Amino acid sequence: NRGAGCPFCAAPEKSDEDGLIVHRGETAYVLLNLFPYNAGHMLVCPYRHVGTYDEATPEEIDEISRLTQTAMRVLRATAGCHGFNIGMNQGEVAGAGVEEHLHQHIVPRWQSDANFFPIIAQTKALPQLLGDVRRSVADAWPA
Questions:
Q1: pTM exceeding the 0.85 threshold for the entire prediction
Q2: Using alpha carbons only, how large is the chain's radius of gyration in Å?
Q3: pLDDT tens digits for 96-140?
Q4: Which has the least CB within 10 A, 1, 48, 86, 138?
Q5: Domain range for residue 29?
Q6: CATH number of the domain that 63 lies in?
């Protein structure tokens, strides 16, 4: 079930590098956010085009949960983060940028990641290129 124009349906059809995919599972996959809040900001998405958490199958929910745990472990190992923001925005009113395809955010956080740029300049400094972050995370992902 594919959504026309849906970036989360299109990503798995691309190479891992072009789709920013760090891991492909059975029912879900993990990719870097194209517009990250912090370096290493990942998304866990089911392959199936489904809009909300309550529409996902038990198998999709299970794999999304397991992939989220693994992503946290990999980010701790590769990025040395101190914490995470994890969550889903369900529906446009809740802030979902792509409301028609379920996705869970995993945002690594560091003690020193808050600075004046987001407030004053509406800019977030990201010191790494997405391709470099994707390679690092993908290489550290357990087999």
A1: no
A2: 15
A3: 777 789 999 999 998 877 654 454 445 555 566 778 888 888 888
A4: 1
A5: 7-140
A6: 3.30.428.10
